[in-house]
Amino acid sequence: MMKLHWSPRSPYVRKVMIVAHELGLADRIETLRTVVGGTTPHVELMRDNPLGKIPTLVLEDGTILYDSPVICEYLDTLHDGPKLFPAWPARLIAIRRLALGAGMLDIALAWLGERFRPAERQSAPHMALWEAKLRACVDALEGEADALGSSALSIGHIGIGIALSYLDFRFGDVRWGDGHERLAAWHAGFAARPSVIANPVVDDR
Ligand SMILES: N[C@@H](CCC(=O)N[C@@H](CS)C(=O)NCC(=O)O)C(=O)O
Fold first, then answer.
1. Is it true that the peptide bond before 67 is cis, omega within 30 degrees of 0?
2. Does 49 contact ligand 1 (Cβ within 6 A)?
3. For residue range 100-123, what is the model confidence (pLDDT) as tens digits?
4. What is the DSSP string of 97-138?
5. Model-wide pTM > 0.85
6. d(Cα 127, Cα 133) in Å, to the nearest integer?
7. Which residues in 127-163 are b (16+ Cβ under 10 Å) and which e?
8. Is 36 in the pocket of ligand 1 (CB under 6 A)?
């Protein structure tokens, strides 16, 4: 069995789990509940990944893989079906979308961290900047909604789908779907996929 440093809270881990389900590989992965996010170094995790981040995948031969795009691309080599990382030129679009979704998550996590700080220590200019960037991302994606809907599922669809789901989960007040009806319709279809339903993001604190 492969071993995955895992948490139900992490959208990056969720990306890997959705990929594993889509590819029929979930039963080859043992999940290890790994708690990160505090200020105490996670010594055990850092032995596998010096960055101390999840997801981190340990293969049966001890090879260690991170971060989530690398793990997803590796999993995509383990099956003979349609690839989530397609051949060029579709690959360029897929990995650019993957980068956009990952960037949205990076911004959302920075914003969330700021929201968890005491109100008097929060940086309003930073939070306004992050909100503006996320809104720009959603605006850009609205222009891609038809293309997302008409192309085969790729790692780009998954990266964007989970980023939008994470906004719903943590930033419901942003109401990203308002004025972005085509993207919201595409996302509703994504959210209904069995692989997505099987891997909810949960705050188990
Ligand atoms: N680029 C990484 C990001 C992973 C990441 O930031 N994971 C968070 C959990 S959601 C984490 O491990 N945070 C702990 C830390 O940064 O110390 C990926 O795509 O895997």
1. yes
2. no
3. 999 999 999 999 999 999 999 999
4. HHHHHHHHHHHHHHHHHHHHS-GGG--HHHHHHHHHHHHHHH
5. yes
6. 10
7. eeebeebbeebbeebbebbeebeebebbbbbbbbbbb
8. yes
Question: Model confidence over 128-180: pLDDT tens digits?
Answer: 999 999 999 999 999 999 999 999 999 999 999 999 999 999 999 999 999 99
> Is residue 55 lining ligand 1, measured as CB closer than 6 Å?
yes
Q: Which residues contact 105 (CB under 8 A, 6 or more apart)?
A: 11, 12, 162, 163, 166
Distance (Å, whole) CA 134 – CA 16: 22
Residue whose tokens read 């109100």: 119
Q: What is the DSSP letter of 68?
A: H
Residue nearest to atom 1 of ligand 1 (CA): 67
Residue 53 DSSP one-character state: -
Q: Are 19 and 79 in contact (CB under 8 A)?
A: no
Tokens of 140: 């850009």
Is ligand 1 within 6 A of the CB of residue 12?
yes
